[in-house]
Amino acid sequence: MTDADPGDLVSLEYTIDRRSITFDIDEEIYPRDATYGAAYLFVDRCFMFLSRPSAGTVRVRLRSRDAEPTEAALETLAGEFANELLNQVMRQRIGESTAKIREYYMARAFFGGHSNATIDDLLAELDREELEEAPLDIPVPWKDGAKGEPEQSVEKAPE
Q: Is 67 helix (H, G, I), strand (E, B) or coil?
């Protein structure tokens, strides 16, 4: 636990009516894409209404699907939305901070080993490899199977 000044803590200020809870989100803290990501995950849990009361602010109204929700249920819904909003912000930041690494690995996966190879080079490499025919244990049902004898395999795979 930290010694935080209670004045430094940010709380979710909201208004509640009979079936909904409404609160504003500052886009300087929570980018619009994070708000949309959180909203997308809540569309099956409640009715969602987004509006813009002023520049840089998104107003979110979550209306319960229940006919008579309790105030505690609406507060829980808003708290879960706020948690998901934070989760979306962290996902975005991690995605941005690791973008170069992902790009590097994708480039290496696609172009790493044979970036300058021609088809002739690749065919020559295949010719150089020892492509022995590996014996397989493949059942051949038409050999002796019709006579009531056990089916025989063409060859046995090496162990």
A: coil
Homologous superfamily of the 9-99 domain (CATH): Ribosomal protein S6/Translation elongation factor EF1B (3.30.70.60)
Tens of pLDDT, residues 51-98: 999 999 999 999 999 989 999 999 999 999 999 999 999 999 999 999
Residue 12 CA to residue 76 CA, distance in Å, equals 12
CA distance linking residue 36 with residue 46, whole number of Å: 14
Distance, CA of 1 to chain centre? 31
Contact 59, 13 (CB under 8 A): no
Give Cα separations from 97 to 77, 88, 105 (angstroms): 30, 14, 14
How do the domains of the chain map onto residue ranges? 9-99
